[in-house]
Design a protein that fits this description.
44% strand; 2 helices
Length: 385
């Protein structure tokens, strides 16, 4: 009986094995046919190169402009962009990834979307809080549109302050989403023609979208580096620097936004709204505010922790208005060279603890109604008020 069972089991196993081989073979044939039918799948990517011979030797399709590749790409595709300048204004309505290629043999690695001729430069957005109308270099209208190793340069966008209300490098429409990793968004500024700036150019703008910016460089804007209005925002391990006298590195009205571990150098550092975490940043606010919650926002549930703030002659941290609940945390920040290090005049139930303040006219303004303890002061004229 035992022998029969063992034999029977072995027979069944052999039969199942044979069936698995048949199914596996059929699956391989189907997969190969499917891959071939779709231009090679992940084996042969879509490539963009303005040159006749692309920088990649294996590809499924070659386009000389990014917009042409975007228009032809299936949902979820990756478009590889060879080194070079691409003077285009692009609209993306399909989930996909734009990825820059480094060509080691040519010692070239920058794939940059530049300004088209001004005759072709049009207003294509009004949904961004940075200005209306607005002209966006890359306009995203779909979910899961990602950028990696790509530059967007706005040099020579507009000369004169009345031509176009706002210039934007990358704009995400309501309902869209994506991640920007190792991108360079630069020189979105509008110049007066007499050496000044109009204050109308922004690097990235999001209107009701879900956007993550990481490991990136956003610089040369004369308005806002990254403006988010009503979506989901994550900004981390990136560098922002503005030009002119009214630049703002990061601004969000979004609940539960995260601004963590960035280097920010602007007239003003970060404007936040509600339930935002701002932590581990190095902020140089040249003449303005380091971290601020303006009067138009609720200013509740903020977590402002572990930031280094220098040069904010107005205030290092400034909460201007709050709902009755309050409940903000301001702790372990290092603030130097401020007019007022921390201003929380109308605060309620806020924890202002373990901060180090060096060189300020006023250390902490707004101790009534808040928990203020364990702070350290050096070279501060009035410690608390």
């Amino acid at each position: 009986m035992t022998t029969w069972f063992a034999s029977r089991t072995c027979t069944i196993w052999q039969t199942h094995t044979a069936l698995r081989v048949v199914w596996a073979t059929a699956l391989l044939v189907f997969t190969a046919t499917h891959v071939m039918a779709n231009g090679g799948g992940t084996v042969k990517p879509i490539v963009v190169d303005a040159n006749t011979t692309p920088c990649l030797t294996s590809y499924s399709a070659h386009y000389t402009t990014i917009q042409a590749a975007v228009n032809a790409a299936p949902s979820g595709a990756t478009i590889n962009i060879c080194p070079g300048n691409y003077p285009e204004q692009i609209t993306i309505g399909t989930p996909l990834t734009l990825k820059g290629v480094t060509n080691l043999s040519a010692n070239a690695g920058a794939a940059v979307i530049t300004m088209p001729p001004l005759a072709n430069w049009i207003s294509n957005g009004c949904q961004f809080g940075v200005g209306c109308p607005s002209a966006v270099q890359v306009l995203v209208q779909a979910a899961n549109v990602n950028f990696t190793d790509v530059g967007v340069d706005g040099t020579n966008s507009v000369l004169g302050c009345n031509a176009i209300t706002a210039t934007v490098g990358i704009g995400y429409n309501p309902g869209s989403s994506g991640t920007l990793n190792r991108v360079a968004v630069r020189n979105q500024n509008e110049q007066t023609g007499s050496g000044g700036y109009c204050g109308q150019g922004s690097g990235i703008a999001s209107a009701g979208a879900s956007v993550t910016v990481e490991n990136s460089s956003i610089r040369g804007f004369d308005s806002i580096g990254f403006f988010d209005e009503g979506g989901t925002m994550v900004v981390k391990t990136s560098a922002f620097s503005g030009v002119g006298g009214s630049s703002l590195c990061v601004a969000t009205s979004t609940s539960t936004a995260q601004v963590n571990n960035n280097t920010l150098a602007c007239t003003n550092g970060v404007f936040v709204g509600k339930s935002t975490t701002v932590s581990g940043n190095t902020i140089t606010a040249l003449g303005g505010l380091g971290i601020s919650c303006p009067t138009i926002f609720p200013c509740t549930g903020l977590n402002i922790t572990g930031n280094t703030i220098a040069g904010s002659s107005a205030a290092g941290i400034y909460l201007q208005r709050q709902l009755p609940s309050g409940g903000n945390t301001i702790t372990c920040n290092n603030i130097s060279g401020a007019g007022i290090a921390i201003a929380d005049i109308f605060g309620l139930n806020d924890a202002i603890t373990q901060n180090t303040i060096n060189d300020a006219q006023y250390g902490i303004v707004g101790i009534t109604g808040n928990n203020v303890s364990g702070n350290t002061f050096f070279n501060v004229t009035t410690l608390t008020q």
